[in-house]
Structure of TPC2 protein:
Amino acid sequence: MRTATYFFIFLNLSLALFEEPAVYPLPFLATSVLEVLCLLVFLGRLTHFAKVTLHNVFWKDTKNICIMVAILLSLTDLAIYGVLRMYDVRSIRWSRIVRPIFLINFAESRQIRRAFRSIRNTLPEITYVFLLFMFSLLMFSLMALKLFGERNLQTAEGLPYFRNYLEIVFDLYVLVTTANSPDVMMPAFDFSSWYALFFIAFVIINTYIFMSLFLAVVYNNYKKHLKVMPREAC
């Protein structure tokens, strides 16, 4: 039963590769039949679990309620999408976002729930570090706007350089990963080599300090919650 459940969960999640817009497109009828088959298997597994569990225990378990709601939402969305497709009305399969619920909430996925619960418990404790990082990013973006926005600089493509605040925030956010380094600073560097100090300070503070601090907080808190979490509570 466990192997069969995991197989159909994997099949259900893999349908995203074949549904429109798809990497390897298959006819809508084929993907819908496979999805209905997966949902029937999930419903059968849930029914089997209900037969071997006390009635009041089964209905008090939020995992079972989540699975039933996910099945109902998936079937409703599939029916609506199929009807709209018959009338050539373009729509979106919004129920795809509920598919990971099957992976998390079945009884066989105890270890996945432990990891998911540890992540959930870790999030509030890393909020302060994340807010500090965002404050630093926004302040550096504001400084970049004041430093470069009034100098009519242009990129190599002839586009305005650092004149829109939101675009500056995005460019500096990418710079945290060093993905656009040193291209993002070259227009300013060509204007004056002293402006390189601004980007050096930004990388030191945000990439080497904040990102290391963020990773350390995430790792330590996740490990702490994973250790103290009772196995029988999962």
Remarks:
- DSSP finds nine helices and no strands in the chain.
- The chain has a mean pLDDT of 87.
- Residues 110-148 form the longest helix (39 residues).
